[in-house]
Amino acid sequence: MTVRKLREWCIERVIFMSGITSIVIVILIFIFLLKEGLAILGHVGIFQFLFGANWYPISDPPQFGAFPLILGSVLVTLGAAAISVPLGVASALYIAEIAPKKTKEILKAGIELLAAIPSVVIGFIGMVTLGPVIKLIFGLPTGLTALTGSITLAFMAMPTIVSIAEDAITAVPRQYREAAAAMGATTWQTTWRVIAYAARPGMLAAVMLGIGRVIGETMAVMMVTGNAALIPHSILQPVRTLTATIAAEMGETVQGGDHYAALFAIGIVLFVITFAINGVAELYLHRTTRR
Amino acid sequence: MSTHIAVRDLCLYYGRNCVLKDLSLEIQRNEIFTIIGPANSGKSSFLQTLNRLNELHAEFRKTGSVTLGAEDIDTIDVEQLRARVGIVFALPFPLPLSIFDNITYGPRMHGIRQKTQMTDLVERSLREAYLWDEVKDRLHHPAMNLSGGQQQRLCIARVLAGQPEVILFDEPTSGLDPISTARVEETMMVLRGRYTIVLVTNNVAQAARVGTRTAFFLMGEMVEVGDTKDVFTRPSDSRTDEYVTGKFG
Amino acid sequence: MNVRTQQRIAVGFLFFCTVLVVLPVLVILGIITYKGFSALSFEFIFGMPKSGMNAGGIFPALLGTIYLVTGAILFAVPLGVLSAIYLVEYSRDNAISRLIKLAIVNLAGVPSVVYGLFGLGVFVVFLGFGVSILSGSLTLGIMILPVIITASREALESVPQSFRIVSLSLGASRWQTIRHAVLPHALPGILTGTILGLGRAAGETAPILFTVAAFYLPRLPESVFDQTMALPYHLYVISTQVPGIREDFRFGTALVLLLLVLILNFAAIILRYRFRKKKRW
Question: What one-character-per-residue DSSP string does C14-54 give?
Answer without folding.
Answer: HHHHHHHHHHHHHHHHHHHHHHHGGG--HHHHHSPEETTTT
